[in-house]
């Protein structure tokens, strides 16, 4: 589930700060326009332009830079308070960053509760869920990237440790593409299942 800011172009999707001409259907003139018109980090669609109708494919910083910041009209303070993830109020449709963070939380939580010795049916369920998740993920760029990852490195469903480690490695691949720090996968259970040894989660 790669997100804007990634530094590769494996799924044919382009970032405004990388190679706009590589987007399917983009022309050389369109590439020049994309280079100068769009801010760094915006994912360009197949036509070489930002997906204006897909909030889950675009960062809230892009919308802010385009003068489309969300407006609040006296709704409850809890509903309009910005989230910890980005500057959008919590009751707005998620942007790509909020969607990604929430999705990783869900997936790691599934790994944390997956059985150590799953039945054949549970293995099939997890394999099917991950395949379906990668197809239905709302950010098409991220979905294609995750589908490619699953084809390259099949989901490991033999038990909690195998799946948890596989998922952590998948998450780290996205972190690398985004220029983020990698997580120490030997500590995934502390982070997602048991809580940190220093007791701060108790």
TrEMBL record:
EC number: 1.8.3.2
Alphabetized UniProt keyword annotations: Disulfide bond, FAD, Flavoprotein, Mitochondrion, Oxidoreductase
Region (Disordered) location: 1-51, 68-91
Catalyzed reactions per annotation: 2 R'C(R)SH + O2 = R'C(R)S-S(R)CR' + H2O2
Source organism of this protein record: Verticillium alfalfae (strain VaMs.102 / ATCC MYA-4576 / FGSC 10136) (Verticillium wilt of alfalfa)
Superkingdom, natural source: Eukaryota
Subcellular location: Mitochondrion intermembrane space
Top class in the EC scheme: oxidoreductase
PROSITE patterns xrefs: ERV_ALR (PS51324)
Domain ERV/ALR sulfhydryl oxidase: 92-192
InterPro entries reported for this sequence: ALR/ERV, ERV/ALR_sulphydryl_oxid_sf, ERV/ALR_sulphydryl_oxidase
Required cofactor(s): FAD
Record protein name field: Sulfhydryl oxidase
Ranges annotated as biased composition (Low complexity): 16-31, 68-85
Cellular component GO terms held in the UniProt record: mitochondrial intermembrane space
Gene Ontology molecular function, alphabetical: flavin adenine dinucleotide binding; flavin-dependent sulfhydryl oxidase activity
Pfam family, one: Evr1_Alr
């Amino acid at each position: 589930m790669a997100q804007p800011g990634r530094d590769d172009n494996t799924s044919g999707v382009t970032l405004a700060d990388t190679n706009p001409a590589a987007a399917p259907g983009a022309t050389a003139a369109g590439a020049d326009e994309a280079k100068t018109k769009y801010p760094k980090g915006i994912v360009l669609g197949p036509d070489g332009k930002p997906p204006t109708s897909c909030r889950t494919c675009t960062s809230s910083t892009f919308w802010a830079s385009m003068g489309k910041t969300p407006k609040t009209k006296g709704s409850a303070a809890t509903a309009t308070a910005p989230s910890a993830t980005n500057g959008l109020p919590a009751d707005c449709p998620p942007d790509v960053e909020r969607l990604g963070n929430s999705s990783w939380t869900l997936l790691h939580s599934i790994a944390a509760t997956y059985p150590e010795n799953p039945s054949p049916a549970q293995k099939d369920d997890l394999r099917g869920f991950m395949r379906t998740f990668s197809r239905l993920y709302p950010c098409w760029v991220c979905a294609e990237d995750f589908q490619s990852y699953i084809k390259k490195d099949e989901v490991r469903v033999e038990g909690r440790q195998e799946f948890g480690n596989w998922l952590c490695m998948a998450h780290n691949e996205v972190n690398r593409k985004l220029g983020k720090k990698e997580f120490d996968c030997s500590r995934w259970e502390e982070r997602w299942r048991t809580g940190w040894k220093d007791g701060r989660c108790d």
